[in-house]
Amino acid sequence: MSRAMTLLALLVVCLIALGLGFAAYVRLAPSDPGRWHVDPLTAPDPTSPNFARIDRLVALPSAEAAALIARRARAEGAVVLAEDGAGTTWIARTALMRYPDYVSIRLIPEGEGTRIVAFSRSRFGYGDRGVNQARLARWLPE
After folding, report:
1. Which of 17, 55, 75, 87 is an S-S bond match for 106, by CB 3.0 to 4.6 Å?
2. pTM for this prediction
3. Is the dihedral of CA 62, 99, 126, 36 positive or negative?
């Protein structure tokens, strides 16, 4: 094998190793609740367009809305990162690369219904191709 072929093979192996290392980091990176568990009412918009917000009033009691959201989130494999009196933050993962997305939801009783304020954002990447908006549409009651 020529020296050029050897260097090319080494370069390819290094690129594959870097790709696998990045994929492992994305999948295994710890999620800090102190950073990702936010109040969707007050959390600022990220600088990148990889997020979605929804603020809507639904005709369900808060307990029913919470149970419905939890059932839909868990059906997609999401897990709770943190919860407190202000809301719950879920970790949802993208289908192909399993990138973590964070979905913070606050339920506020309002009259006979519930105001749902939700903020879904991607941890990695710049654009989300509408993934966060679509997720909120699937999870939240109308």
Report:
1. 87
2. 0.85
3. positive
